[in-house]
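Subgroup meeting minutes
Present: P.N., E.W., G.H.
Scribe: E.W.

1. P.N. recapped why we're keeping a running log of single-chain structure predictions: easier to compare across weeks, and new members can see raw inputs and outputs side by side.
2. G.H. added today's entry (481 aa).
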Amino acid sequence: MAIFLILAIPLVASVLSFLVRKKTGSLSFIAVAASALELLAAVVMTLAVSKNGLYSLGNNFSVDYLGAIVMLTLAITGFPIAVYSVGYLKAEMDKGIIGFRRIKQYFILFHLFILAMFFAITTTSSILMWIGIEATTLATAFLISFYNKPSAMEAAWKYLIINSLGLLLAFFGTLLFLYPALSGGHHELITWQALLAGGLSMDPFIAKMAFIFVLIGYGTKVGLVPMHTWRPDAYSKTPVPVVALFSGSLLNVAFLAILRLKLVVDLSVGKEFSQNLLMFFGLASIIVAAFSIFAQKNYKRLLAYSSIEHAGIMALGFGFGGAGAFAALLHMVYHALAKSMLFLSAGNVFLKYSSTKIKNIRGVMSVLPITGVLFIFGFLAVTGVLPFGIFITEFSILSVGIINHPFVTAAALLGIALVFIGFLKHIIAMMFGEKDQSIQSGETSAWLVAPIIFLAVILLIVSFFVPSAINFLITSATLPY
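Output recorded in log:
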């Protein structure tokens, strides 16, 4: 029942938003209520999975240990992002940047985006999961071009073309995984369990080729180097709440697809093949992001490269395997919370300064004292400074890697250090520089601050104390890796 609800709620919310006529308050109420109900449904399913190991709706939808972690992370970040969207769009409407029609379009697509991600997480079919992830591309392409500027349109087309080509490769790889079952006469939707059951008998060469296509294809959505080129452009032009979902949730959903199919190729050829590929793309992502961060002039692009770095850290953790996989999945949770908080803080900066250029942002701590503190809080969390959980997960991943892959680990450590230095340089200039006297000090609205505080509190709590149910889910989910 809860699976039905978590799929029905965003669909109904999108339809109701479509039917609303000239009442932004109704759109806001629908968004907040829907996200709260989605969070409730996700918590119910997570508790059920931690108790029973699986939560199912017929043969086509179920949530296992791994799916429960990704689903709960999406729901926890989705609620404050929906609340923040209300304040963010109202502020832009008050400035005359957008009108009711744009706000209505935003919420319709916002709910469809959430629906597509929940659908991809809960389905038991690799084909339906591909459809769900492809649907996120269609919904978000219009959100990237939300402001209808030439640069935004260019970013939207770039996003659409690169991601569609990537997902086409992922589809081809998925078909290669399905080939043994399809050639055996199976015409129904093939579940993950059926794929795993056929993994041992799969031709090793086909399995390797299939995983390469899948990793490159879904790696485009994740933002792994060199498939990352759409991410900085899209992030810099998209409304901030949607970017927070990109980095905190869509990245995890796409990674989920890679991890599910990784188990199949591991059964056919052993773990070393997939682990080596993940280490290669993971390290490349960390190094490219590290050097790119120094040259950034746009703080939204800066955060985009930070997301690329963390995608690389996750890939590295799963590439190392064992305790590294556990740390990588926990890192996924921490990163979603920290990066969502950072992007929402960046949204407040943008609303106040009307610029995304780092050189134009000075004295944030004086102009927006609460947002400034939260921004620094998020910066310290996302760069892995104690006492935040990302320090523990990065340390754990590198500790595992130093034993069997010392050179890869050393290079990754250098990249992580460079990210911190480059990030720090930009943050100091933005937070503590001399402010423009023409800019009025003060937070804009509680709608724009409360969601960030909500995320900060959760991040701080789970950095010190991971609930036993979550710890059990992560442990159980990463045992095969």
